[in-house]
Design goal:
Largest sheet: none
Number of strands: 0
Shape: elongated
Distance between the termini: 85 Å
Helix content: over 70%
Strand content: under 5%
Number of domains: 1
Oligomer: single chain
């Protein structure tokens, strides 16, 4: 039996009307999950599995999967930034600052955050599909034979949502700066090799320009943004992974999209706040000499 056209239009209107409300509800759910994670850190449940092994387990796969990808991406970006200095000719002497400082200030944390956001969205949403399970995040907890065969129910304790989110937030917050620093090291090394071969510039000059232009806030920004970007991706992906089937179930694409959007927003906010609050970036590479 076909559905009347009026009923179809009514269903379409209801879906359109619910769309902004659904997005608002998700924002509230993500904020509530963040509060639960903070509460789990301050007042952990007595039935919760040990936190450190859970964080280490999550951090292990984040670094194992992220290091090769971040290295490959920054190989190309390090050489690209160095070649920009070569073909542009304006930044020939400042190639080290263009490559090294550019990677530390913005490129490495941003690209590493994007890569980690994709990995976390795929892995976390898949691991948490089906909800909170007994023994989750506890490697020591193994179901016995009767449970595996369905002879009796699994009576192992279930971790609460805040505890699950906390383990992934902490693991991501640690992995983010590590991967960003790895990206800086790979990109800077590649840029140094390209600059030496194409411009004939000595490594001492290349590294000296980085040291001359680099400011403490640049390094602090790499750490803060690296941790913040990855933690935000972990929070969004954990919320998505715990989404009930009645709400459509976990959606990996939605987790990736929202994570990247928030990373761009946080990056924009950090850059503008720090830039407007003071002058942390120092003299311009191409600034005209005084006098």
């Amino acid at each position: 039996m076909s559905i009347p056209a009026n009923a179809e239009r009514a269903v379409l209107r209801s879906r359109i009307a619910w769309l902004p409300l659904g997005r608002l509800a998700d924002l509230g759910g993500i904020a509530i999950l963040a509060v639960k994670a903070l509460r789990a850190l301050i007042r952990p449940s007595p039935n919760s599995p040990p936190l450190v092994p859970a964080v280490m387990g999550q951090m292990t796969w984040m670094l194992a999967m992220g290091i090769p990808l971040v290295g490959l991406v920054h190989l190309s970006f390090g050489s690209f930034l160095a070649m920009q200095a070569y073909f542009g000719a304006t930044f020939t002497e400042g190639a080290g600052a263009v490559v090294g400082v550019g990677l530390i200030r913005n490129v490495a944390p941003l690209l590493s955050g994007f890569i980690l956001a994709g990995l976390i969205a795929v892995k976390v949403t898949s691991d948490l599909r089906g909800g909170l399970r007994p023994g989750l995040d506890d490697r020591r907890s193994v179901p016995d034979r009767d449970v595996l065969q369905g002879a009796r129910p699994d009576d192992r304790p279930r971790p609460d949502a805040g505890r699950v989110a906390l383990a992934r937030l902490l693991a991501a917050a640690i992995s983010g700066p590590v991967l960003a620093a790895w990206g800086v090291a790979v990109g800077t090394t590649m840029g140094l090799l390209v600059t030496k071969s194409m411009l004939g510039q000595s490594p001492a000059i290349f590294l000296g320009k980085i040291a001359e232009m680099l400011r403490p806030v640049d390094v602090a920004g790499m750490v803060v943004k690296g941790a913040g970007f990855a933690a935000m991706a972990a929070l969004i992906s954990t919320f998505e992974g715990l989404r009930h089937d009645r709400d459509g179930g976990p959606d990996t694409y939605r987790a990736v999209f929202r994570s990247i959007f928030m990373i761009l927003f946080l990056n924009f906010t950090w850059f503008n706040l720090v830039y407007l609050a003071s002058d942390p970036f120092g003299p311009d590479v191409a600034a005209a000499p005084a006098g």
